[in-house]
Amino acid sequence: MASFDTAIVLEKHEAHYHRCPSCGMVATLETPWLEEAYSTAIHAADTGLLRRARRFSAMTNAVIGFEGLKRGRFLDWAGGYGVFTQMMRDRGLDYWQHDDFATPLFAAEYADDGEGRYDLITAFEVMEHLADPRAQLAPVAARTDRLLFTTQLLPDPAPRVGEWWYYMPPVGQHISFHTVASLRLVGKDLGFELTSNGAGWHLFHRDPIDLRTRALLSEATITGGRRVRQLRARATALLGR
Question: Which strand ranges, in their side-by-side order, compose the sheet holding 201-205?
Fold first, then answer.
């Protein structure tokens, strides 16, 4: 990893950002401020939590439908307060929740017991929080053949810290910033292939996925339910199903 940039995190800690010359990933390798950053699991600046949960639930429901998994078992990993999990259960899906830092206020009775496998695991806005994605994802990967997740990929060329909102140094929780190449490497090490829209939506999968899922993900943005319905209809129409 080569030195890339520096910034002040949490308004007082100097952070050194490094970039991999091979895959382009940017990361802070030393993070002594993390305990302070996670003194509250969900930062006050995250005012879009409910809106995102609605959007993520629409997209995930579409993927589950295309993959023929409606009768399956699902887990939202690092799921925060459990809003998304409850929304998915409201759709009639067998969804469970896990988070090491937050209390699942809205899904306490659906806590993952650490046993068994899941047909799909979701991990929304998580990858940017992981200091060692391979090691931290390994226990999750061992329990599923499909991992649907969001994280904003680095633009090309990679912006400096003050030029891209997703670094979020005042919050201090975002420490890893990926490219398609870096995600592909992580997935390969965990036994997955990667399907990505090259922006925010990504799917690790061990087996081939439905062409409608691929079409949906290729055009997806972190967007609203109405837009997801339009994309789902278009993906179905394009493939004549």
Answer: 94-98, 73-77, 120-124, 146-150, 201-205, 193-196
Cα 29 from chain centre: 20
Alpha carbon distance 55, 227 (integer Å):
9
pLDDT digits (tens, 9 = 90+) for 38-89: 887 555 555 567 888 999 999 999 999 999 999 999 999 999 999 999 999 9
What are the two backbone dihedrals, phi and then psi, of residue 42, each rounded to the nearest 5 degrees?
A: -110, 115
pLDDT in tens, 152-204: 999 999 999 999 999 999 999 999 999 999 999 999 999 999 999 999 999 99
With CA atoms as reference, report the closest residue to 96 among 115, 40, 138, 222.
115
DSSP 155: P
pTM of the complete model: 0.89
All structural domains of the chain, each given as residue ranges with its CATH number in brackets, are: 48-153+177-238 (3.40.50.150)
CA distance 167 to 128: 9
